[in-house]
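Morning F.,

Quick status update on the modeling queue. The single chain you submitted on Monday has been processed. Sequence for confirmation:
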Amino acid sequence: MRLQLGVAKLCLAISAVALVAAWPHARHGAAMLAAGDDPVRLSELQIAEALRQDRGMIERQIEAALAVGDADLARSLVELADAHQVALAEPLTRRVADAVAAERAPAQVASRFATGLVTGQADDLAGLSGTMAGDLFVFGDIRDVIREGKHLASGEAADHLVLGLAAAGIAVTAATYVSIGAAAPARAGLTLVKDARKVGRISEGLATWAGRSARDIVDTPALRRAVADASLLRPAKTLDAVKAAVRTDKAGGLLRLAKNVGRIGDKAGTRGAFDALKVAESPKDVARAAKLAEAKGGQTRAIIKLFGRGALLLTAGTWNFASWIFSALLMLIGVVTSLKAGTERLTQRWLDRRKRKAAKRVLAAETQPQPSVRAASAAVEA
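Structure tokens below.
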């Protein structure tokens, strides 16, 4: 009985210690699974857990961003630290402020604006402003359509995604003017996706999907005829010819993607949109990124930098979270089972002790002489 009770106590102690160790992981895993595909809640849980394990994580990331000259990312990380009450060294925050100020100097902004206007490539707000200016005056989109369309007409390799985005952009630009800016988010999103494609900042999965959609909206034979004698010197004629080659009824999916990208760019900046396009593998991922950007604003780049696609939805960690929950349940069952076994052993031990005491009393009563027998014995002796 003592051996069985000792085993039950040992099992109880082991199960209790294991449960205490597994409980924080199981609680975090349950919260992550309950969050599902809500990027805002997922990011909050992941940041809290990461900071619980390593409070110096954000400071190291800021140092790394400054080392590569990415002041915008460093600023985003500072915003994330402020939002989660993480104290940063004053010299570090001053370095970030100086880097951001240098990046926003008028001469730098003007240079990047001009580069975006002429080349159609941008990696920040100033460059995007130049690119969008060119696209809003259809200069940029016509340039891209003529370049890629001539490749297509001559049998050379053409970037169908850039071609489709530029063609859709021409149609959306007209709608933007007609609606007095109502279509501006889609216009900005198309430019962002096109620029991300040019600089290689769009994931393979998303590029494949967008490329298929772009092919659907372009009437290739009509476009070949349009670019046969197209020229930037005759924008009105080229514009009409390209519009005729665009199937606007097929552009719904691409325009929804563009609107979400435009929302990200509006809240998180150009580089934030590029980072989201780099980790997103489908339009649904982009929609989640837009929701995250609208909730977190300037912190979005920092969150995506820290967690990648995991900031948008549960990925490979699902099994890990489930395993911690399962382990905690097993440990809880172990604790309950050990308590039950220990209680049964203690109860049995108490009952056995009562039985032994009762048996001793009965035996003592049987061996003790009766009063009449004692009286008779005393009379004989007298």
